[in-house]
Amino acid sequence: MQDDYPATVRVRGLVVPDLLLVLLREGRWNHPGEPAVARVLPWFHDPLDFLGSIEQMERESQSLDRLIQDDETAELFRCAREPTATGAVELPWLDVDRAFFIAVAQYAGDDTAIALDYRTNSVDPRVVASDVWTSSAPYAWRTVAETFSEFVAELRLDGADAEPAVG
What we know:
The chain is α+β, with helices and mostly antiparallel strands. It has one domain (10-155). The protein contains six helices and nine strands; from the N terminus they run ββααβαααββββββα. The protein has helices spanning 18-25, 34-40, 54-61, 63-67, 71-77, 148-155; strands at residues 10-11, 14-15, 48-50, 79-80, 94-95, 99-105, 113-117, 126-131, 140-145. It has a five-stranded antiparallel β-sheet with strand order 3-6-7-8-9. The protein has a two-stranded antiparallel sheet with strand order 1-2. 31% of the residues are buried.
């Protein structure tokens, strides 16, 4: 059997976690339903589209470069590139060179998303999501799960809580 993806797949230069590749290949990287999303992201109120291919993730994540083209937009959306002299970009900011989108708002203009954040782990990155509902700033990024594998387990996309087949 031939895999759909080469050994190392990248989005925005970042290695896509093996677990995400497996979920995509097996057709399990899908929206788990509103109750699951509400359980894992209780502050998040916009309907989401889980990006179903590497190409969609790459295409949607290109908007990160546009968000930092001017200081006002970068400030509004809390997006930055890691400065070389002043230190690391930390939450509630997103480092656009160390992240890519895995889910985006279903409706254009909602401007909310879920991203893999590689600042903490290059193999099993942290999952962050935008927050426009509870933050004192107009827009902020906050941790959803410390690792992508934890996020998948919390959403029950890993099949661990699947009902056994009756037969």
